[in-house]
């Protein structure tokens, strides 16, 4: 019981820490962390769809890109203000991802991955090839939300968005919908037979998770000032997966810890850009080999090990009861 | 036709997989409050029939009526909402959820309050001697406990009217089998739940069911008490002939 309270307390302390951090770090690291928060939102929302619900999508980065282009284009071409263009970007990603969810209702696993990947490639190439409208590979200038390139306001913006994302996902996973999503991942046939409307909840998972990606993307464009089809590059998707896997798939903190830790690590290794990807790949291999559940699994094992010592060697695990003889 | 006592009517049900007729014009009726056995040799089409009753498959031909309403072609969750629960031959439980969470799913989809769902789950888990495991991940249970959990999970639905079970006794320990039989009898007597039970365990079916339906090669070949059907030459042939 007090475990829950500890969790919330740790979350609160981390939030406070992050809120005061810009006073102690320079603009460069504020910028780095802003980008890390952006990826943390993508990772956490992908975890909702592909981790908890088990729908392995490879289009998540593309929804970030679609959100970014929608909002930026609406502003640049139609003069629509932020407060309308950003929600429009979010709504459009939710709409497109719902349609994709409907298309993918009967597929899963590798087929779902392939379809979503193909969709992402179509979207990326659309923005590349319609360059008169989208700016193509050269990219598109996006008006800055706070009219400045000074990173502090954007840092707080993305910190706020990340906190909102975490709260939303926690609320979903603790509600009945969270039960249904987990049931769908474990056994969708059993879920349906137990009354779960899997059509509704699969589409829900697609729409909410992609909507969050679209939101992150839209704000990202207006924070960086320039968007390009690189946002839809498969590398971006691979990074999201790496963040989630390193942090711990199907855990709440895992994707966020993974995204922030790996982004910081990559930044520290910036000078050695060739060995950077090597180190990252080695990290993935080591974690996958020894801690299948990522950093959160490492944490669990350490905690269990400490508890075991405290309890004098008796582990609370694997106590399976065999029922006594029933009288009938 | 729409006799009030008939809870389930199979009317000339045909199911074709590619070139294979898994069900070949099956017709029979189950009365409200019955515990009906459905037997037949391996591959005779029992599971296929259940999958059509519960909406996993749509019938190629024919009708399935539940309380007089056609249900074939409806989605499984819609059929569940009408008061039909089922179990699977190979137990399907939510392995990465806790035992208690497994129990809550059918209650939640039905709109039961948290309080009601939890009280109900505690009672049923107590009955099934699974209480001690309620907060354990389901994957830590034994195979027999998977089956038991799958069965009591179906009882979570309030107003359950028809419970379709596919081989509920297969591969479970004698003690668990006792609990399952007890739960079936209790729910049948106290809550007037109708059961349709597929099983190879003739002795158990004989003691539970006053009437059994026999399938062979996708067709209904006999119906009656276990004693009666056991003496019908076609039934003996079907079992001996393989
Ligand atoms: N999805 C499917 N696709 C193709 N053929 C199928 C499918 N499901 C079942 N069959 C075939 O239909 C026939 C009937 O199978 P079914 O599983 O209904 O038999 P059963 O009576 O339940 O057998 P058992 O006692 O072994 O469980 C078998 O020949 C089986 O191979
Ligand atoms: Mg079968």
Please tag this protein with its features.
heterodimer, A: 328 residues, mainly alpha, two-stranded antiparallel ribbon, 14 helices, B: 242 residues, alpha/beta, four-stranded antiparallel beta sheet, 37% helix, globular, binds adenosine-5'-triphosphate, binds magnesium ion
Describe the model.
The complex is a heterodimer of chains A (328) and B (242). Chain A is globular, with a radius of gyration of 21 Å. Chain A contains 14 helices and two strands; from the N terminus they run ααααααβααααβαααα. The longest helix of chain A is centred in the middle third of the chain and has 27 residues, at 198-224. Chain A starts with a helix and ends in an 18-residue tail after the last helix. Chain A is mostly helical. In chain A, helix 3 (60-78) runs antiparallel to helix 4 and helix 3 (60-78) packs parallel to helix 5 (109-129). Helix content of chain B is 37%, strand content 26%. Chain B has nine helices and ten strands. In chain B, strand 4 (61-66) and strand 5 form a beta hairpin. Magnesium ion binds at residues 46-47, 89, 166 of chain B. Adenosine-5'-triphosphate is lined by residues 17, 20, 22, 40, 42-48, 89 of chain B.
């Amino acid at each position: 019981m007090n475990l829950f309270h500890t969790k919330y307390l740790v979350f609160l302390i981390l939030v406070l820490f992050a809120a005061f951090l810009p006073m102690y770090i320079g603009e460069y690291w504020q910028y780095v962390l802003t980008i890390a928060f952006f990826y943390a939102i993508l990772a956490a929302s992908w975890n909702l769809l592909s981790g908890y619900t088990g729908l392995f999508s490879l289009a998540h980065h593309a929804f970030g890109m679609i959100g970014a282009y929608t909002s930026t284009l609406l502003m640049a071409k139609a003069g629509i203000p932020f407060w309308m263009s950003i929600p429009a970007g979010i709504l459009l990603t939710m709409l497109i991802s719902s349609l994709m969810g409907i298309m993918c209702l009967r597929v899963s696993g590798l087929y779902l991955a392939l379809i979503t990947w193909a969709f992402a490639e179509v979207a990326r190439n659309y923005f590349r090839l319609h360059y008169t409208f989208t700016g193509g590979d050269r990219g598109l200038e996006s008006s800055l939300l706070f009219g400045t390139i000074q990173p502090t306001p954007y840092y707080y913006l993305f910190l706020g968005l990340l906190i909102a994302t975490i709260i939303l996902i926690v609320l979903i996973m603790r509600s009945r919908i969270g039960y249904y999503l987990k049931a769908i991942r474990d056994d969708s046939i059993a879920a349906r037979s137990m009354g779960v409307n899997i059509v509704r909840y699969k589409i829900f998972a697609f729409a909410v998770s992609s909507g969050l990606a679209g939101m992150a993307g839209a704000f990202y464009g207006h924070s960086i000032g320039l968007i390009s089809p690189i946002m839809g590059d498969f590398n971006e998707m691979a990074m999201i997966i790496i963040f989630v896997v390193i942090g711990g798939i199907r855990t709440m903190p895992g994707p966020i810890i993974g995204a922030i830790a790996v982004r910081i690590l990559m930044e520290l290794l910036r000078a050695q850009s060739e060995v950077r990807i090597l180190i990252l790949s080695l990290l993935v291999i080591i974690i996958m080999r020894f801690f299948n559940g990522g950093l959160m699994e490492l944490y669990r094992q350490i905690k269990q090990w400490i508890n075991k010592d405290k309890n004098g060697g008796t582990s609370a695990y694997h106590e399976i009861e065999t029922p006594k003889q029933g009288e009938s | 036709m729409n006799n009030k006592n008939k809870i389930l009517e199979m009317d000339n049900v045909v199911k074709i997989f590619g070139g294979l007729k898994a069900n070949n014009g099956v017709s029979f009726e189950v009365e409200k409050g019955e515990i009906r056995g459905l037997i037949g040799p391996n591959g005779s089409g029992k599971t296929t029939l259940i999958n059509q009753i519960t909406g996993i498959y749509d019938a190629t031909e024919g009708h399935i009526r539940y309380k007089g309403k056609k249900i074939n072609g409806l989605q499984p969750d819609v059929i569940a909402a009408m008061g039909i629960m089922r179990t699977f031959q190979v137990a399907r439980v939510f392995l990465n959820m806790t035992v208690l969470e497994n129990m809550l799913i059918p209650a939640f989809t039905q709109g039961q309050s948290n309080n009601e769902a939890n009280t109900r789950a505690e009672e049923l888990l107590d009955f099934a001697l699974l209480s001690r495991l309620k907060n354990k991940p389901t994957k830590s249970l034994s195979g027999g406990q998977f089956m038991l959990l799958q069965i009591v999970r179906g009882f979570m639905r309030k107003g359950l009217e028809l419970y379709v079970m596919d081989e509920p006794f297969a591969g479970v320990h004698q003690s668990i089998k006792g609990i399952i039989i007890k739960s079936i009898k209790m729910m049948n007597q106290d809550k007037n739940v109708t059961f349709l039970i597929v099983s190879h365990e003739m002795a158990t079916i004989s003691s539970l069911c006053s009437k059994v339906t026999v399938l062979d090669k996708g067709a209904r070949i006999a119906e009656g008490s276990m004693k009666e059907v056991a003496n019908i030459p076609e039934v003996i042939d079907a079992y001996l002939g393989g």
